[in-house]
Write a structure and sequence with these properties.
Layout lengths: L1 H28 L2 H7 L4 H11 L1 H31 L2 H30 L1 H18 L1 H17 L9 H14 L4 H13 L4 H4 L1 E2 L5 E3 L4 H11 L3 E5 L6 E6 H4 E2 L2 E2 L12 E3 L5 H10 L4 E5 L5 E6 H9 L13 E5 L2 E5 L4 H7 L11 H9 L8 E4 L2 E9 L4 E9 L2 H16 L1
Parallel strand pairs: 2-3, 7-8
Antiparallel strand pairs: 1-9, 3-4, 5-6, 8-9, 10-11, 11-14, 12-13, 13-14
Helix pairs in contact: 1-4, 1-5, 1-6, 2-3, 3-6, 4-5, 4-6, 4-7, 5-6, 8-9
Length: 428
């Protein structure tokens, strides 16, 4: 009879050990957002959220309960095996071995594996009982909370906020798990990175700007509008370093053709900003001043480029094309692992496409090319960087910059041969 009693007590202890282990895993791995959604019409889910708000007390209660049942199990098992084998040393040894295996398999690994697969469901199942234990063990948990406060004062905790990289990692994990689709994930990541982007990162360089000098005839202006297909043109005196206004197409053309008003009366004053201006601040400023164009000026007061409202919005939603835009493919795969790349793109876009990470002071691929070649790139200039072979294929003669490059993704063997070739050349 005593043996049956011992076995029943040990079985109950194993069950409680499994319960506490599973509960700990369920509360630590559950999805709070999903639980908040369930809590709208489920009392158990609401109780789970209430318990989670007292997480320190909850974990302390679970650990106390788990230790009580495990110690009880070990004690009862020792008595049982000593009595069964009629030998203190042998009984204690066998008890230790059996309890270790049983607790490991049935009290830890199995329940934690199950709870990890269904954390929200198990948390709701276990919530009422653990809530009752929370009240029953309140005096003990209170003493442990005092001990925790003492430790917190001795080992001061650094208050750290979640970094931008951590937020992006969470979004990427959500995409991989299927909780967030690719389009939504990209939009969220763009929004996270939005506040860190500066005007210099997205501006249209002065070499690409189209405008006209103050005093230009209306017929010439109409021709520039027709050729450029732009809705706004910059107006300058002498050169682009002295921009005096922005002319909107709808102000220049009326229902009867070209306006009869003086062009100078139609000009809108542009906003002038430094390259370091954050684009989220610039967006608010453009909205407030009801403007569409901001002129980015360099340290000498010259025109570096412009940023439009469309440029800023594209940082959030991606490229915006209209029927007049010339669609330029940024990356064209010529053959396997060989790409034709537009050199005017941002270095971030280049790195993401080729799945690379490295530090550079350059913002665009053009700047990175000059950084690697230590000179203004010329046609057929090439270099090897990590697993990429980069060759300058096209130069824009008017802007004196690289238009397109050819990028070959090298495999490990090719890369090794290239490195050996470079080493032998250097030795020669």
């Amino acid at each position: 009879m005593d043996n049956i009693f011992y076995i029943i007590i040990m079985a109950v202890c194993v069950i409680f050990s499994a319960y506490f282990s599973a509960t700990e895993t369920a509360f630590s791995t559950m999805n709070r957002t999903r639980m908040k959604t369930l809590a709208e019409d489920n009392k158990r889910a609401k109780l789970v959220l209430d318990l989670f708000e007292k997480y320190d007390k909850l974990i302390t209660t679970i650990l106390i309960g788990n230790n009580i049942v495990n110690i009880t199990l070990s004690s009862i098992a020792t008595l049982y095996f000593v009595q069964l084998l009629n030998d203190n040393n042998t009984g204690a040894t066998v008890s230790t071995a059996v309890v270790t295996v049983v607790v490991l398999i049935f009290g830890e690994i199995t329940p934690k594996s199950i709870a990890k697969d269904i954390p929200e469901k198990f948390a709701m199942i276990s919530a009422p009982f653990i809530n009752m234990l929370l009240y029953l063990l309140r005096p003990i948990t209170y003493l442990f909370s005092l001990w925790k406060k003492l430790l917190s004062r001795i080992f001061k905790k650094d208050e750290t906020k979640m970094s931008q990289e951590e937020l992006i990692l969470i979004v990427e994990e959500g995409q991989q798990e299927g909780a967030i689709d690719e389009g939504e994930g990209d939009l969220i990541k763009n929004a996270i990175e939005f506040t860190e982007r500066k005007a210099e990162d997205i501006l249209t360089h002065r070499t690409k700007l189209i405008g006209f000098q103050k005093g230009t005839s209306k017929d010439e202006i109409a021709e520039i509008f027709a050729e450029s297909q732009f809705s706004r043109l910059l107006v300058y005196e002498e050169n682009l370093d002295n921009i005096v206004g922005v002319l909107h197409q709808k102000d220049f053309f009326t229902s009867r053709g070209i306006t009869e008003r003086e062009v100078s009366t139609l000009l809108k004053q542009p906003i002038f900003i430094p390259p370091s201006e954050k684009i989220n601040d610039l967006l608010k400023r453009l909205q407030k001043e009801k403007s569409h164009v901001a002129v980015v000026i360099d340290e000498y007061g010259g025109t570096l480029g412009i940023v439009t409202m469309e440029d800023i919005l594209e940082e959030l939603v991606g490229d915006i094309w209209d029927e007049h835009d010339e669609v330029i493919e940024t990356f064209v795969e010529l053959e396997e692992d060989v790409f034709r790349v537009d050199a005017s793109i941002s270095l971030d876009t280049f790195l993401k496409f080729f799945d690379m990470e490295f530090e550079s002071e350059s913002v665009s691929v053009n700047g990175w090319l000059m950084e690697q070649l230590s000179k203004v790139p010329e046609e057929n200039d090439s270099f090897v960087f990590e697993n990429l072979e980069v060759t300058v294929t096209d130069i824009d003669p008017e802007a004196h910059r690289t238009a397109f490059i050819k990028v070959v993704r090298l495999h490990s063997e090719e890369n090794g041969e290239e490195e050996d070739s470079q080493k032998s050349n250097s030795q020669e």
